[in-house]
Amino acid sequence: MKCTNCGLREATTEVLIRRNDHVEKKYLCGDCAKNYRPDTGNDSFDMLNKLINGSPMGLLSNLNSLFEAPSVRTLVCPTCKTTSEEFLKTGFVGCPRCYEVFEPLIVQTVKRLQQSDRHIGKRPHTAADTAAEEARLKAEIRSAVDNGDYAKLGELSDMLKRLVSNNKEDR
Hints:
Elements: E1 13-19, E2 22-28, H1 30-35, H2 46-53, H3 70-73, H4 84-90, H5 98-101, H6 103-114, H7 127-147, H8 150-170
Antiparallel strand pairs: 1-2
Helix pairs in contact: 7-8
């Protein structure tokens, strides 16, 4: 799909613009997305702008101290020439390499917004998950006994013991 703004390049970004009760979709190429500035009004970027530029919510307003170090202020992507100042102002990166270059800024921002930089999962482990894992280990133990693979049998037995003891502790 071509960029709805310039019509020259392939679109890589979808932008939803909400005005009153109407939602408009724009499909932008990387260059247009980098330079995109939402119109005034109730845009979907209002929240992003508030987060980046500081707001009463203050989610990103206290991050400025992280970026005052000279080494962070002067970061420039060697591929697309996006600067750390541009990144902090717009919240957009210019190319895939920017993620490596601006990693310190991105990681600190994610930690601040989400209280962690690790994804733990969609849901906690359940008793059904533990039971399925226990059944799988028991089947592998039977197979190891049948094949005479005693080294693997020892490893599997230890894994099963840990699983059972962790399950008892969780109750």
